[in-house]
Specification:
Blueprint: H1 3-20, H2 25-38, H3 42-53, E1 66-68, E2 70-76, E3 81-86, H4 95-101, E4 103-105, H5 110-118, E5 125-129, H6 135-139, E6 147-156, H7 157-181, H8 196-202, E7 217-218, E8 232-233, H9 237-255, H10 261-275, H11 282-297, H12 305-319
Parallel strand pairs: 7-8
Antiparallel strand pairs: 1-4, 2-3, 2-6, 5-6
Helix pairs in contact: 1-2, 2-3, 5-7, 7-8, 9-10, 9-12, 10-11, 11-12
């Protein structure tokens, strides 16, 4: 074996050790940059450069960096000003705008993502303000006389945590491929058997198996993890109880209405159906709550409406909607 391969082998083992000890990726990437220089692997080099510098081409962003999001806005009305209003995005007619608003592509560098996490709270969310060009589409679904003053997308802190976990997993995936190139001479004993790979990929969350693409299932035990629009999540009993409390409040109001009653009860049925499943789809729950929220904003004179709207906002924050 040449000295060059011996050096690369040692660097790879060092990175594996850093991953096990949960060192920051911004530190690990300094070593990975050196490995990338020596390895004639275009796939690895391109992936590393994108993660290290950020994705300039949004079409190349991998699934583990794409997440469902909620849209909120400050809205001027004839009667005053609505702050932090949840926009029922599914009511937007334009397919392109609706799909664009329903997700966020994280194109930031991995060091930027880690830095954002370090400066955030455990319950924090991240905000990206929307360009004014989409305000007109949002205005179309608001009551007459209302218009958007400011709008933004919100994404759960958990999305950043999951992105880091996915990058660590991807690193190890590449190293397993390199294991074959080095004819099994890369020493994985430092990891106390290869099964620890799964643990490393998930060590930034409480427990479970994470697949961050759309249509994926996440087993997170007591964690609340949010991914694509069709992702499923095992929701813990505490969060389920919060959702059920808001559902009961909405049902009480819906029974007192006439024109809106049927539509609201249908949306509640969608939520209840998901809650009865082992792995509820948060995209469906979010969509139903957003629709109900839009209906309630058009219902005047009901004293319970502001309380319920706050409740909807609360449960959507819990499930990342």
């Amino acid at each position: 074996m040449t000295m060059e391969k011996l050096d690369v082998k040692a660097m790879i083992e060092s990175v594996i050790s850093d991953l096990v000890s949960n060192q920051p990726l911004s530190v690990i990437f300094l070593k990975v940059q050196a490995i990338s220089f020596y390895l004639d692997n275009q796939e690895f080099r391109e992936w590393f450069e994108n993660e290290n510098r950020g994705y300039a081409d949004l079409d190349k962003i991998p699934e583990y960096r794409i997440y469902g999001t909620s849209v909120r806005a400050n809205i001027m009305t004839f009667g005053g000003f609505w702050r932090d209003y949840t926009i029922p995005v599914d009511q937007i007619k334009d397919d392109f705008v609706r799909n664009w608003l329903n997700k966020i592509k994280l194109n930031d560098s991995i060091s930027s993502i880690e830095s954002s996490l370090e400066n955030s709270t455990e319950q924090g969310v991240f905000v990206r303000h929307l360009p004014g060009v989409v305000f007109s589409e949002i205005n179309k679904i608001l009551q007459q006389g209302c218009h958007v003053e400011d709008a933004w997308q919100e994404i759960s802190r958990t999305a950043f945590v999951n992105t880091i976990a996915a990058v660590k997993s991807k690193l190890l995936e590449f190293f397993l491929k390199l294991d074959k190139e080095f004819k099994n001479e890369i020493n994985f004993d430092v990891m106390s058997e290869k099964k620890v790979i799964e643990r490393i990929a998930n060590q930034t969350i409480n427990a479970g198996v994470v697949n961050l693409g759309n249509h994926s299932t996440i087993n997170a035990n007591e964690s609340t993890i949010v991914g694509g629009q069709n992702n499923s999540v095992f929701i813990n009993n505490e969060i389920k109880g919060e959702i059920e409390k808001v559902v009961a409040q909405i049902k009480e109001v819906a029974e007192s209405l006439e024109d809106e009653k049927e539509e609201m009860l249908n949306e509640l049925a969608r939520i209840i159906t998901q809650l009865d499943k082992p792995a509820p789809k948060t995209g469906i729950i979010t969509s139903a709550f957003q629709t109900i929220n839009g209906i309630l904003m058009g219902v005047a004179g009901n004293a319970a409406t502001p309380v319920i709207i706050d409740g909807i906002k609360h449960v959507l924050s819990l499930i990342g909607g």
